NADH dehydrogenase (Quinone) (Desulfofundulus kuznetsovii), 622 residues
Amino acid sequence: MINGLNDLIDIRKKRLPDINARREKPGAAPGWQVLVCTGTGCTSSASHQVREELARQVQLKKVQARVFRTGCFGFCKMGPLVVIYPGQTLYCLVKKEDVAEIVEKHLLEGQVVERLLYEEPASGERKRRLSDIRFFRAQHRVALRNCGLINPEDITEYIACEGYFALADVLLNWTPVQVVDAIKRSGLRGRGGAGFPTGRKWELAAAAEGPVKYVVCNADEGDPGAFMDRSILEGDPHSVLEAMAIAGYAIGAREGYIYVRAEYPIAVDRLERAIAQARQYGLLGRRIFNTNFDFDIDLRLGAGAFVCGEETALLRSAAGERGEPRPRPPYPAQCGLWGKPTLLNNVETYANVPVIIREGPAWFASLGTENSRGTKVFSLAGKVLNTGLIEVPMGTTLRTVVFDIGGGIPEGRQFKAVQTGGPSGGCIPERYLDTPIDYESLKQLGSMMGSGGMIVLDETDCVVDIAKFYLQFSQDESCGQCTPCRVGTRRMLEILERITQGKGEMEDLNELEELSREVMDASLCGLGQTAPNPVLSTLKYFRDEYEAHIRDKRCPAGVCRALLDYVIDEEKCVACGLCARECVAKAIMGEKKGKPYFIDRQKCLKCGACLARCPKGAIYTA
């Protein structure tokens, strides 16, 4: 039980040698430390089997080593990941069968298992140390500072990393006004999408009148391909709890709720453990640090509705009502959860708060750009060599993210665009690759920061199909409450479907733009107001591709099935008959070992099965 700052200091002293060993600082604990990623990505690749086998082998062979679970390192494509200290040796794609060799060679003989090291795609050079890999070199971790470093299920490891020291400091030495002022001076903006100044939001909630207020965390991450918040909760749940307690002190709240997707089982489990541990240590509950401040946190599980990313919809859902947005004002700071003043931020926003208090607002404000301070976490996905979770200072260029951290486009293909902001964002073409990433620059390009999803497209991606995908998502996730969103997106989707089927007309493009403006202007909430962004951005930068679909009945990327013709190259065809055997429509004719086969275009279903089956590459799309 922690009753004061000295208790916290004592715990930190006991566990600091372990953390020093991982940070390669003086005062490190002796012996090997083996860290195994147990985030969702690596867990899905059976990292728990690797961890269990490591623990078994270490015990069996009496090795002076300890095995720890950690949160996500970020290098998801190469998981399961294992890092061994001292030496910071990173092993990739580790299987249970590799464990005996790691234990024997690395932990007993002190040699590196070369075949499990990461190989840089460009040079073919194998990199031993995690920090030598390009994917990590350009990053600056603030919100992710403890992910991949500590055991998220052990509160003492968080305390060893100065966890809960910020809470102790504000409760013992600061006034609530000073806390709000520090957040304002840091320049922190909401990392959930809109980028509203966090300090201003805290100030409004603090100024709201009423004896009961709430602090709520939005962990309802719903963008396709986004997993930033989930990874923070899985890798460093106490940072969010500590920040919410600080927020509660700042605005005068005694209760907090985390609204988290039920489909995030690891995050939910670690949050439940973290809350129980914090209560056990007296860091949640009554008279925290022996002061008059009481604060506790509970969970609310969401069903995974994208519209609940809207704060008013989320608060309704958290209160047990249907998750539908409502008009604002009143804003949640005046009328939120159960009608009481409520402060709502997302996971990444809260994760920055303890470090801002500890390091000072000036330190945080020194990172990033003039109007977008600090760093931003992105989930990098799509057509890049290195996919995963990254964190970079605001102002980092898209080129650095795609080609330095991401490693560029695989298979020598051409970069086409980067899609940011999820369903609410847009596609940014190659000529803007040197644009610094911040809230304003992305908005000027017709996209947005969103929660941090970033998907790279190459020449084999059809932008019309991409726009249709995101609009389909928004249409499916619309709550249907307002007509512009419910009907407007439906009509837009119908037009896009006609275009991808070769039935579009040039007038459709003007109608798409007109409908987009109307949906944006008239929709009730952010879902409808931003749903047309993927359509407008692709129309702006890739209008020629839309016109090719309409005028030439051709999909330049070769994606839209209705516009494809499958053709057999007579010179390459060896008449093996495998394509004809694969064709369920009986559209391929020929005589085995005779003349080259051919495809009846009237019968062809354009499923592509023949192309995939041909052993000689004789079938192509035209």
